[in-house]
Design a protein that fits this description.
Blueprint: E1 2-3, E2 8-9, H1 24-30, H2 39-48, H3 59-62, H4 69-84, E3 96-97, E4 103-105, E5 111-114, E6 119-121, E7 124-126, E8 129-130, H5 133-136, H6 142-145
Antiparallel strand pairs: 1-2, 3-4, 4-5, 5-8, 6-7
């Protein structure tokens, strides 16, 4: 299996078959992705002398060809939500964090105040913020900010 655009072999395997029609599925299953990257796997490849190219989990962030990838992810997320009838919530990129990390500005232009630091959410360290009741209660974007807009988000 070859990346024709960049002339990179993605997967190679010998099957001993005269016809190729039945080989697409095993070739697709054998094609590596960044899920194979680990310290142990890279060490094993080096010890075995295998000239392998295994993408690490951060390669797209360093590669200038993927600089717009977040734009497409956001569009895809919004399209999926629209198809399912769900409200698309804001992401952290929609908020502007102050330099001292004590407050942030929400998409509605209101200041949110720090409500906890060094919080671990789904394995990631985070900072929590909360808005004023007078600002959030009547905000047109409330349903896009919170999972449970009926019960959350007030000082």
């Amino acid at each position: 299996m070859v990346d024709d655009k960049h002339q990179v072999i993605m997967h190679a395997e010998g099957f001993g078959e005269a016809q190729e029609q039945e080989l697409l599925v095993p070739m697709m299953e054998g094609t590596a992705d960044s899920g194979f990257h680990s310290e142990n796997n890279v060490r094993m490849l080096m010890e075995q002398g295998v000239d392998a190219y295994v993408a690490d989990h951060q390669f797209r962030k360093r590669d200038p060809r993927f600089k717009d990838v977040d734009r497409y992810k956001e569009r895809h997320r919004r399209e999926r939500a629209a198809l399912s009838g769900k409200t698309v919530r804001f992401s952290r990129k929609d908020f502007t964090l102050s330099a001292d990390q004590r407050s942030c500005i929400c998409p509605a232009g209101k200041r949110l105040y720090r409500n906890g630091g060094n919080v671990v959410i789904h394995g990631y360290r985070a900072i929590k913020f909360r808005g004023r009741k007078t600002d959030c209660r009547v905000c047109e974007f409330r349903s896009q900010c919170l999972k449970h807009p009926e019960t959350r988000g007030f000082l």
